[in-house]
Amino acid sequence: MEITLTHYLLVGAITFCIGVYGVLVKRNAITLFMCVELMLNSVNLTFIAFSKYRVDLDGHVFAFFIMAVAAAEAAVGLALILHIFRHYRSLDVDRASELRL
Amino acid sequence: MDAIFTNDFYYLGLIVLFPLIGALINGLFGSKLPSKLVDFVACGAMLLAFMTSILSVLIFSRSQEPMLTYTAYQWIYTGSFNADIAFLLDPLSSVMILIITGVGFLIHLYSTSYMSEDPGKWKYFTYLNLFVFAMLLLVLGKNLLVTFIGWEGVGACSYLLIGFWYSDDEKAAAGQKAFIVNRVGDFAFILGIILLYTETGTFDYVELHQMATNAATAAKLAPIALPVVLLIFVGCTGKSAQIPLYTWLPDAMAGPTPVSALIHAATMVTSGVFLLSRLNGLVTLTFEAMWVIAIIGALTAFFAATIALVQNDIKKVLAYSTVSQLGYMFLAIGVGSFTGAVFHLMTHAFFKALLFLGSGSVIHAMGGEQDIRKMGGLKKWMPVTSKTFLIGCIAIAGVPFFSGFFSKDLILWNAWSNTHVFQIQGAFEGLPTIESLTNTVLPAVESQAMLEVATPTFIIHHLVFVLGLLTALMTAFYMFRLYFLTFEGECRADEDTKAHLHESPVAITIPLSVLAVLSVVGGWTGWPHVVSYWFKDNQKVADGMLAFEHWLAPVFETSMTYRIVNRFGEHYKPYEWASMGFGTTAAILGISLAFIFYIKRPDLPGRIVESVGALYKVLEDKYKIDEIYDIAFVNRTVDAGKVSYGFDRNILDGVLVNGVGFFANAFGQILRYLQGGDVQKYATYIVLAIVMAFFALT
Predict the structure, then answer these.
(1) Residue A20 lies in a domain
(2) Does residue A71 lie within any of the structural domains?
(3) A78, B236, B358, B601: which is deepest, by most CB within 10 A?
(4) Nearest C-alpha in A relative to B678
(5) Is this prediction's ipTM beyond 0.90?
């Protein structure tokens, strides 16, 4: 069986949905964070697939950008998680729900 | 004199500046300055302004120029609309600045004594100087806008000074009444000058006068002259206390007496007369407006005099007398006697300031008592005040050789003799040109064709002449009633007051004496023509006797010569003698009646009052005009205010302002549940939104 663009996109979409599902239902901050990474990387996969299909480098450029941003986000996100843990002694995001009226 | 100086006559700026500086010094530092220094600054500023005025008028009279001007500041400068703070000195404003600064200085001097014990004296002098500043702006302004600043300025100062003793509710209310009634007039005034501007494109008096007197442009101006002049005249009825807006002036007597003398007798109230004289070219373009002015003036003169007959408050009598005399001036303008109006303005400034200051002296001596029924025999204690007051009464009554006689006679004579050449039947079609006048009208003036005047003008002039005579009779009567009740006979004051009776200090008697002299000689600059005719061989004397008329001639020349003419032509002499005779008779008759009623037979007035009780009551109640205004306008305004208040409270505030707030608040109350602080819920909203957006877009 030949692997076509559709297959790549399907894998990307499935991975993205898994990421969304994780973000919406998981309580653990680290898990949430990993799910966000999953979503980012599914988008990367999609970009690369389109890039290969169209035979140009634009998708690569975007993928690199996303990787760079994801690296920065990882730094900030992990620092935030660390602080949440220190503050609440827990990684449950439901505990960190004081930003409300 | 070189031409540059003519257009850059900076003395005019100085005249205006001195009182302003005086007001600033007293206004900013007056509360901390010693009392003597406050007096010195206020009077010094006035004296400097007076000296500069004299000097300016002297330079002007020698300069051979028609006018001197000075542009102090380029005020508004846009493409099509330019207005400068510019001043204009011509014969008319010369007369006005001399009266304002001269009489103003005397009244400042008087006030130093009159107000010496008042803790707010510095404030008083600040307002007084500020008033003089505004009044000088009004008369010196070269365009209507500068005049308008002064016009509003004097109104504001008048309000401040009437309500000077503002802790007394009644006095504060009198100040507000003056201000509000004046605003009614000012509104019409603004409309008038805007209408004038839209048609002419200028506010400048010189340009306006040229337009109004040049035959070609006058024809263009004629259609709007009637509404413009009437609107401006409504403004004048407010400021100069004419029917129907005169009611504020008698109430204005709540202010300190020198204020009544300066503002509500000598200067501010004459600004309407000044303005119409300034615009004489425009006024004479429209004979309908002149009819209105003449009739309103004559009616005001008459009705105010009837009210003055029965008033018992010394200042109220003088107040109604002022309204009446101002009516005389408007009567004069209405019959085209601008010289007469300005002449009467001047003599009136002298004798009415004198009378008010005299009454202030009396009130001071009586310890604040103003009811003439409780006075009497005061001449024993107050020789200077009583003598100067008597001179003032003689002058205002119009006894020959006193100033009031000359001005009143000129007005009455002109009312009888003047006619508009516009009205001569068949003289010409449309508006006259200088040529058509010299060719057809002026010859006709000298022939019997002059008697062919248009009927309305003829009737109106005779009507105002008769009303003027009756007013003169009543004026003589009530002024001498006032004099006799105050200074002659037995003293009716209680013993306590009697013990305190004294002549006033020199700061009060000097201004009285100076004004008394002016009240006599002030009129000697304008003798009747027939008298000056006796001296026709000695041209110098004859000219001197008509000095006032000759001085003002350049201002009124065009309109007087070509639009207003003497309908008796060459044969005027017997008529002028007759007019003088009527006037003198009225004065003598009035004085004699007062003498009989209040000296010979003091029981008579009471019996007469009994027999015509109803009429007396009507007069004493001032025709109930104030009450009628209350019902017709004041209460209706209050009602409208209440309705607006309700609308504002319930509809604007209730429904609109609070409604919007309530709605936003309620919406927020619902939305707040979305803000749960739960990150995952937010993420859910985002995902749901994206999904919905996705479906919406496909």
Answers:
(1) yes
(2) yes
(3) B358
(4) A97
(5) no
Asked if A100 has any chain B CB less than 8 Å from its own CB, the reply is: yes
Instruction: Identify the weakest region by mean pLDDT among B223-237, B327-341, B475-489, B602-616.
Output: B602-616
Beta-bridge partners for B82: B77
> Which band of pLDDT confidence, cut at 50, 70 and 90, is reported for residue B561?
low
Q: Does A98 touch chain B (CB under 8 A)?
A: yes
Average pLDDT of the residues in B648-652: 89
**Tally of structural domains, chain A:** 1
The pTM of the full predicted model, rounded to 2 decimals, is 0.80
The owner of tokens 């107040």 is: B319
B694 alpha carbon, distance to own chain's centre: 80
> Which residue type is seen at B672?
R
Question: Chain A window 31-50: which residues touch B at a Cβ cutoff of 8 Å?
Answer: 32
The residue in chain A having the minimum alpha-carbon distance to the alpha carbon of residue B675 is A100
Structural domain of A73: 5-90
* H or E stretch at B418: strand B418-420
Query: Has residue A36 been placed in a domain?
Result: yes
- Amino acid letter for position B439: N
Q: What pLDDT does residue B103 have? A: 93
Q: Hey, are the CB atoms on A98 and B677 less than 8 Å from each other?
A: yes
Mean pLDDT (whole number) for B20-40: 91
The rounded distance, in Å, linking the Cα atoms of B395 and B53 is: 26
Quick check: B684 and A100 CB within 8 A? no
- Examine residue A48 and state whether it is found in any structural domain, yes or no: yes
| A17 interfaces chain B, CB cutoff of 8 Å | no
Q: Which residue from B41, B105, B470 is spatially nearest to B266, judged by alpha carbons?
A: B105
Decide if B426 touches A, using CB distance below 8 A: no
User: B-chain residues within 8 Å CB-CB of A20?
Assistant: 687
CATH number where A68 lies: 1.10.287.3510
